[in-house]
Amino acid sequence: MPEPLKLKLRNALTSVINPATGRNIIAEGAVQGLTVTDDGKVRFALELETGEKQQAETLLSAAKTAAKAVDGVTSVSAVATAPTPSSAAPSGGGHTNPLGMQAKPRIEEAAQTLSGVKHVIAIASGKGGVGKSTLTANLAVAMAHQGLKVGLLDADIYGPSVPTLFGLKDKAEVRDGKIIPFEAHGVRTMSIGFIVDPDKALAWRGPMVMGALRQLMGDVLWGELDILLVDTPPGTGDAHLSLIQSKRLTGAVIVSTPQEMALSDMRRGVALFRKTQTPILGVVENMAWLELPGGERQYIFGQGGAEREAKTLEAPFLGAIPLFPELREASDTGIPLATQDHPATDIFAEIARKIMVGVS
Ligand SMILES: Nc1ncnc2c1ncn2[C@@H]1O[C@H](COP(=O)(O)OP(=O)(O)OP(=O)(O)O)[C@@H](O)[C@H]1O
Ligand SMILES: [Mg+2]
Q: Is 300 found in the same domain as 160?
């Protein structure tokens, strides 16, 4: 009586828990092709999404033991299959994305949509709060003023800054399955903040963050661009690895303040990009000094640390940006300082020119 036996078998197999998912192997759909012959011979395949060989073997052996213990079973023949590395999607497959759309399962595929974009440049730093987002927004504006077609992708899923920096409060429109970027100050921009409320993203786990990033790359109508600047989150985490895996990075620009704590984090950032053959287009020293009313400079975070570090790392030094209270104010009001008549505007323009020289 194979049918009731099959039911008993399925029941027995629910006692086997996959430690990788915390679910039993029946509930997670890992047991495939379960057949029972009239004389009690059982066959099935254990299809596992993730996990190492060792773990798969342990699980397979537990499943066989559970099956053999069922009354009426005379033999069990089972194999474990795991996705091969090349066909396996990176964490967070096509379906686990928070934007209600089907994300491309691999970042490389998502990046193919950027075929109209000549160069993708990541702005990164090891340490948080050193001015990556401020620099990225103002560089984008400076490049647009130089006649380039510029995009700005905010890859900081947990802490998007672009909506504030560009004074954009609306949500993005989706047309024919494509997200329409905003145009502001001559720059095409997209941020997770244009899609969901930032507080929501805080509850997302790694795979969803990666799914969101793939969508910001692959499902946005970026169109033709000379340059796509990518504002990255602090540190060297999943977002950076995803960008590197996209194989679309022309290079990275590293931002640091002159203080030792920021410099050691910067070295880590440089090491990650170098290890993956991503060119370092240069180093920017931010918050380099504060100009006092009398005209002298106060080196709040130490003097010239990032410039020296750039030399040591044999990376081009792109320039120093002093502390400008107006820069902070302009950022908070959503009108980038680079659109205004201010000494900082010339500094951003010069850094933008040097980056473009490095790229070409
Ligand atoms: N040169 C500067 N002069 C004055 N204020 C600055 C300067 N650079 C950045 N700021 C201010 O410092 C704060 C941090 O800057 P920003 O958000 O750009 O850093 P970040 O590196 O992107 O931070 P996070 O790591 O959190 O993403 C902001 O309030 C910004 O306005
Ligand atoms: Mg930032």
A: yes
Report how far ligand 1's centroid is from the alpha carbon of 197 (Å).
Answer: 22
User: What's the CA-to-centroid distance between 325 and ligand 2, angstroms?
Assistant: 18
In this structure, the answer to whether residues 126 and 27 fall within a common structural domain is no
Rounded to the nearest 10°, the torsion over CA 83, 89, 94, 97 is: 120
Residue 198 has pLDDT above 80, yes or no: no
**pTM to 2 decimal places:** 0.74
Name the least confident of 112-121, 135-144, 338-347: 112-121
Q: How far does the centroid of ligand 2 lie from the alpha carbon of residue 196, in Å?
A: 18
Is residue 28 pLDDT above 70, yes or no?
A: yes
The model's confidence at residue 95, banded by pLDDT at 50, 70 and 90, is: very low
Same domain for 297 and 175: yes
218 Cβ partners below 8 Å, 6+ apart?
Answer: 103, 104, 109, 110, 111, 112, 113, 114
Q: How many domains does the chain have?
A: 2
Going by alpha carbons, the residue nearest to atom 2 of ligand 1 is: 323
Give nearest CA residue, ligand 1 atom 25.
128
Average pLDDT of the residues in 153-163 = 92
CATH number at residue 159: 3.40.50.300
- List pocket residues of ligand 1, CB cut-off 6 Å: 125, 128-134, 156, 159, 161, 234, 286-287, 321, 323-324, 327-328, 331
Ligand nearest to the CA of 331: 1
Query: Which helix or strand (DSSP H or E) is residue 287 part of?
Result: strand 280-291
Residues 170 and 293 in one domain: yes
pLDDT at 39: 87
Rg, Å, the chain Cα set: 26
Question: Is the distance from CB of 153 to CB of 216 less than 8 angstroms?
Answer: yes
- Using the mean position of ligand 2's atoms as its centre, give its distance from the Cα of residue 16 in Å: 45
Beta bridge partners of residue 280, listed in sequence order = 252
Look-up of token digits 């000094």: 289
Rounded to the nearest whole angstrom, what is the distance from the C-alpha of residue 103 to the centroid of ligand 1?
31
User: Which domain, by its residues, includes 18?
Assistant: 2-81
The answer to whether position 225 is within a domain reads: yes
Residues 168 and 262 in one domain: yes
Whether residues 113 and 76 fall in one domain: no
